[in-house]
Specification:
Two copies of one chain form a homodimer. By secondary structure, chain A is of the alpha/beta class. Chain A folds into two domains: about 70 residues, Hypothetical PUA domain-like, domain 1 (Ribosomal Protein L25, Chain P); about 160 residues, SPOUT methyltransferase, trefoil knot domain (Alpha/beta knot). In chain A, helix 2 links the parallel strand 6 and strand 7. In chain A, helix 2 crosses helix 3, helix 2 packs parallel to helix 7 and helix 5 packs parallel to helix 7. The longest helix of chain A has 15 residues. Chains A and B meet through helix 2, helix 5 and helix 7 of A and helix 2, helix 5 and helix 7 of B.
């Protein structure tokens, strides 16, 4: 159970600092969460750890005097997600689930069978912030502007392995592949419903830094494949084994 | 890419059989999928494999003469899901994701912090059928009526291990635990948002067939925890390693 509300802020966090919440945060704290002056809340900014303090409600605005650092900053593992945007609700779920599961960066990738080429990254960033607040992350993943598949591949850093989830049948499962290729940094590429086109598949298979992997015998929806692949990566190479 | 529409039916499937679709299936085939007489479709019933045939549209009704068996029946691994129902959309996602990820049975479990005790299992079964059709499963998971946590535990078959995802901190990750305890059959228990109450936690820790496991350092929403735990179980003990 969460002990106190957590908010992502853009202010510097340090001893003695006071946060002035903007109108939208102030409304959220007083009208949605119905907090009172004196209630404890926590804030994080992606760099300075998590800080706690007591809320001061001053008319329509809220502020927070930081009293103590409750957690040191910790970064999520270095993992990228490249995903073909799907329908709105399901794209929202991709962003929310990837944030909870500790993704560092996400890039919407436009492929031949992509259903919705228009992606509002500002909206998605807002969702990622909410998911980060909820999931006790200390940072918010970066969501890059969308880019065409061929273009992102042509400029790709060959030292970052791309695991590409291939519905059409990869030779090995993702888990088995990760056990034999523990190379970091990494990215996971999830195609659209309908998979990749034949020429995209050829492009992907041309490069030695792109490894096709299987996510089991059933056809997964895009957002399921994202949650599945990230869970497997985190549990084998990520930060899940450091918990106690 | 799916080659032809797939439908779950309740008829016996065998050579020479003809399926008469009911009004709802007939509407779906002609108005939603806009199929024509002669179009190929596939059907499965959870027992007799997947069969193909060509559609015959006869006025408002559709039928299908089975021409060949396209896949032999295959069951999903023996894994149960016990989940505390959450808000409607997120409970729907739990059912959809668990079906895609190859769960055998699901039971909504009512806990102290369960937000919505009323669960319409008929609606959830309908969602599971759609997800099974979409994911190329050859069966539909059983969704049992909801039951109180203490009651299901008191009558539990002690030979079926329950892995209980404990936000409050388990000693080992789910993946590490599965590697040292490869006992089947199994069940996965996912609590509500807010976790389990202290007395529920004590109840769960009393039994040697209930094993607490961790799903990483972040707080996962219920539907994320379901997708995550099932993916990890399938990739270590399930049927993901049999693909090629």
């Amino acid at each position: 159970m969460r002990k106190y509300p957590r908010l992502f802020v853009r202010s510097r966090l340090q001893q003695g600092e006071e946060i002035d919440f903007d109108e939208s945060h102030s409304k959220y704290l007083t009208r949605v969460l119905r907090l009172q002056s004196g209630d404890g809340i926590a804030v994080f900014n992606g760099r300075d750890g998590e800080w706690q303090g007591k809320l001061v409600i001053d008319g329509r605005r809220c502020r927070l005097a930081l009293s103590e650092k409750s957690r040191d900053q910790k970064q999520v593992p270095d993992l990228d997600l490249l995903f073909a945007p799907v329908k709105k609700t399901r794209t929202d779920f991709i962003v929310e689930k990837a944030t909870e599961l500790g993704i560092a960066n996400m890039t919407p990738v436009i492929t031949a069978f992509t259903q919705s080429a228009r992606v509002r990254t500002d909206r998605l960033t807002h969702l990622a912030i909410e998911a980060a607040e909820q999931s006790e992350r200390l940072d918010v993943p970066t969501i890059y502007e969308s880019v065409a598949l061929a273009r992102i591949i042509s400029g790709w850093d060959v030292n970052r392995t791309i695991y590409y989830c291939d519905e059409a049948g990869a030779d090995a499962t993702f888990a088995d592949t990760l056990k034999t290729r523990p190379a970091r940094p990494a990215a996971i590429l999830i195609g659209p419903e309908g998979g990749f086109s034949e020429s995209e598949r050829q492009l992907l298979r041309q490069h030695s830094f792109i490894i096709p992997v299987s996510l089991g015998p059933r056809i997964l929806r895009a957002e399921t494949a994202v949650a599945s692949a990230l869970s497997i990566w985190q549990s084998i190479l990520g930060d899940w084994s450091q918990t106690s």
